[in-house]
Specification:
Layout (H helix, E strand, L loop, with lengths): L1 E5 L3 H12 L3 E5 L3 H8 L10 H10 L3 E4 L2 H7 L2 E4 L14 H13 L5 E5 L7 H19 L9 H7 L3 E5 L9 H6 L4 E4 L3 H15 L14 E4 L1 H32 L3 H9 L20 H14 L5 H13 L2 H10 L6 E5 L14 H11 L3 E5 L3 H4 L9 E2 L3 H5 L4 E4 L11 H7 L4 E4 L6 H6 L3 E3 L9
Parallel strand pairs: 1-2, 1-4, 2-3, 4-5, 5-6, 7-8, 9-10, 9-12, 10-11, 12-13, 13-14
Bound molecules: uridine-5'-diphosphate-xylopyranose (UDX).
The site of uridine-5'-diphosphate-xylopyranose has 19 residues, from helix 10.
């Protein structure tokens, strides 16, 4: 099928590349010329395992093309994905100006033939109908340019140019760091809208994925498709993220109580996770959730509820538990080192989670800010950030090139991101290089006994006690 994906951020580029990989003819549109040039050469502007490989093979088979020309993309696609960003505004609402511009742009460039316009971005509830209205506005704008100056298009003229289209909400549930894997192995596909015709085309588009042709385990039954109305599909995305974020805040709260009563949250998580009603996922206590989705989506849902006169108390609590949790490493550093002024703290990891180069809303940022405020010197080593030298959003931290340089002279280390390679560092050597071998394991990722044997004073989150 002919597909156009507008916006080549995480969602857009992964969607475009994966759809090309399963045999569709894809054009990806982005208004950033530099980025388009980079992608044409087969390079991915983001770090995402497996993405460059499938991009390059799709370029070779000519299944994917990149352009900054929206008109060309719209004219190519029978299915048009809107996958532009909806970043948070200071108020917590989503900034939907990019969605607005693209929806109008689609309308201005629609040519004959039925098209399905798909909202892939996480858009505020009610956006499906709004996008429909904007596309219609765009169509009218274009028609105005087609009548003599000062003239008004006649009804006949309007209908002559009016294109047939439907809007579908198709939220994504990809995790950064495993986005390609998640696209080929989804738990479900949600299609919101009231047009049977649009839903049937979307089912056709996803059929190879639904039939598990590209799945890790091809023997699984087909992926369930859930067809809903527009606003329920939009709500599913918010509710899923809000639930997961709340689940993490819940276990973090339990961890804080564990710390006080002398229990071990990792054991508690195992014990409750074996209850199939609870499930064992997203029960890892630590220094809180971050990234481009959870903080933005939970705030936006709270805001939407507010707009409709409802105070989302549980979600507000999930956010405030998380804000406090981001400073838990600081609290623990103070417990062990007492005064932080003049001390050097080394951070293992900076990104909000492993296998990504994303620093958006990363817990490391607030930790650096607060350590600086208290007069500590902050150094960091992150497998991706140290390698790429990418420093966007980072200040007040010295980025080292490896973990041993990081350890050198530090009064304490804080494990911020659970990068796999941190499980096999030479902690014996690192302990010897440090002024005080203290480690705050902000993700309960390391084996306490190994660290203690290496000479460290080990402090986890909700893991009972300071061990040494
Ligand atoms: C999330 C959703 O999982 C995904 O479905 C949605 O499409 C986008 O948002 P992502 O932000 O990539 O994906 O990361 P995720 O793996 O969900 O982690 C989010 C945050 O929660 C990270 O900061 C992570 O460190 C934290 N986390 C996750 C925990 O603290 N404990 C856990 O048990 C799981």
């Amino acid at each position: 099928m002919r597909v156009c994906v507008i916006g080549t951020g995480y969602v857009g580029l992964v969607t475009g590349a994966c759809l090309a990989h399963i045999g569709h003819d894809v054009i990806c549109v982005d208004n950033n010329e530099e980025k388009v040039k980079l992608m044409k050469s087969g390079q991915s502007p983001i770090f995402e395992p497996g993405l460059s490989e499938i991009m390059q093979s799709a370029i070779q088979t000519q299944k994917i093309h990149f352009t900054s020309d929206l008109a060309a993309g719209v004219s190519h696609g029978e299915i048009l994905f809107i996958a532009v960003g909806t970043p948070p505004l200071p108020t917590g609402e989503s900034d939907t100006r990019y969605v607005e511009a693209v929806a109008r742009g689609i309308g201005e460039n629609l040519n004959g033939g039925y098209k399905v316009i798909v909202n892939k971005s996480t858009v505020p509830i009610g956006s499906g109908d709004w996008v429909r209205m904007l596309v219609l506005d765009g169509i009218v704008e274009r028609q105005k340019t087609l009548v003599p100056a000062g003239g008004v298009p006649s009804d006949e003229k309007l209908s002559e140019f009016a294109a047939e289209f439907d809007v579908v909400s198709n939220p994504e549930f990809l995790r950064e760091g495993s986005a390609v894997h998640d696209t080929f192995n989804p738990d479900r596909i949600v299609l919101g809208g009231n047009s049977q015709r649009a839903v049937a085309l979307m089912e056709q588009l996803y059929d190879p994925i639904v039939q598990r042709k590209y799945a890790e385990d091809q023997s699984l039954p087909p992926v369930p498709i859930l067809a809903t109305d527009l606003s329920s599909a939009e709500m599913i995305k918010y509710a899923a993220n809000a639930f997961l974020a709340t689940k993490i805040s819940f276990i973090n709260e339990v961890a804080n109580i564990c710390d006080r009563v002398g229990a071990d949250v990792t054991q508690v998580a195992k014990g409750i996770g074996l209850d199939s009603r609870i499930g064992n996922k997203f029960l890892q206590a630590g220094i809180g959730w971050g990234g481009s989705c959870f903080p933005k989506d939970v705030s936006a849902l709270i805001h939407t509820a507010d707009d409709y006169g409802y105070e989302a108390q549980l979600l507000k609590s999930a956010v405030s538990v998380n804000e406090r949790q981001r400073l838990i490493a600081l609290e623990k550093l103070q417990q062990v080192l007492k005064i932080l002024k003049g001390k050097t703290v080394g951070l293992l990891g900076l990104t909000f989670k492993p296998d990504t180069d994303d620093l958006r809303d990363a817990p490391a940022l607030i930790l650096i800010e607060q350590l600086n405020r208290l007069g500590a010197k902050v150094k960091a080593y992150d497998p991706i950030i140290s390698q790429t030298g990418m420093r966007h959003g980072l200040s007040g931290v010295l980025v080292e090139t490896d973990a041993e340089r990081l350890a050198d002279g530090c009064d304490a280390l804080v494990l911020v991101t659970e990068w796999q390679q941190f499980s096999t560092l030479d902690y014996l050597k690192m302990a010897k290089l440090m002024a005080h071998p203290v480690i705050i394991d902000g993700r309960n990722f390391l084996d306490p006994e190994t660290l203690i044997r290496a000479g460290f004073q080990y402090v986890g989150v909700g893991r009972q006690r300071v061990r040494s």
